[in-house]
Amino acid sequence: MNLPRWCGHVLLWIGFLGGALLAVRSTEIPARPWSTISWPAYLLALGVAVAGVVVLRATRRSARTGSEQHAGDVAEMAAILPRLRAQVQVWQTADGRLPVHEVHRQIDERLSDDLARFAELRESLIDAFGLADFAAVMTEFALAERTINRMWSASADGYVDEVDACLQRAAAHLDLAIGRLDAALRARAGSRR
Fold first, then answer.
1. 8 Å CB contact between 148 and 115
2. Of the residues 49, 95, 125, 166, which has the fewest C-beta atoms closer than 10 A?
3. Which CATH class is domain 67-191?
4. Which residues, at least 6 apart from 177, have a Cβ–Cβ distance to it below 8 Å?
5. Is-contact 122 134, C-beta < 8 A?
6. Which residues pair with 32 in a beta bridge?
């Protein structure tokens, strides 16, 4: 979290908690229920909370202006998923099939950089598409990544059947992630017309 956003949260919570404390610190007088509240101090606390909201809104707005960078990140992500899928697909063919104890080395060599980069860029999906599409793409990507990690472990332990099953599941999840990212890109392109 960046510093202005953090300051906005601090102001919001100081104002909120200060106002709550001021509202309940004195016992209420039944004949005059609102007279025990220190209104100037309460309004000051309210002002601090409003300032926090303003700072948070401003930082959110400035984050939106970086959407050109997010567009580049999304394009990079859209290129990473097919590369991952293509490599998994090669390992599923008879010519590309690896010995079980070689799979984990190949995962480290051929997939780990793309997996890490995709995960690093994931926040750009929220700005580009919103939370629903972010969740749809990242759910499938996370399942594929988890399956690839399981495949790595199965390879290191020598479980051939588990490696084969993980290859199929990883390919299916990557296909779904590609489809969901493509659908989000098409929907965004359609809404801009």
1. yes
2. 95
3. mainly alpha
4. 81, 137, 140, 141, 144
5. yes
6. 29
Q: How much is the pLDDT for 193?
A: 62
How far apart, in whole angstroms, are the C-alpha atoms of residue 132 and residue 17?
Answer: 32
At 19, the pLDDT band (50, 70, 90 cuts) reads confident
Alpha-carbon span 26 to 75, nearest angstrom: 58
**Long-range contacts, 35-38 (Cβ 8 Å, 24+):** none
**Which residues lie closer than 8 Å to 45 by C-beta, 6 or more apart?**
14, 15, 16, 18, 19, 22
Choose between 119 and 65: higher pLDDT.
119
What's the predicted TM-score (pTM) here? Answer: 0.66
Q: Check if the beta carbon of residue 103 is closer than 8 Å to that of residue 112.
A: no
| Residue 125 to residue 133: CA distance in whole angstroms | 8
Per-residue DSSP letter, 28 = P
**Ordered alpha helix ranges (H), the chain:** 3-24, 39-64, 67-92, 100-106, 112-120, 123-129, 131-157, 160-191
Question: How deeply is 111 buried, as exposed, middle or buried, from its count of CB atoms within 10 A (0-12, 13-18, 19+)?
Answer: buried
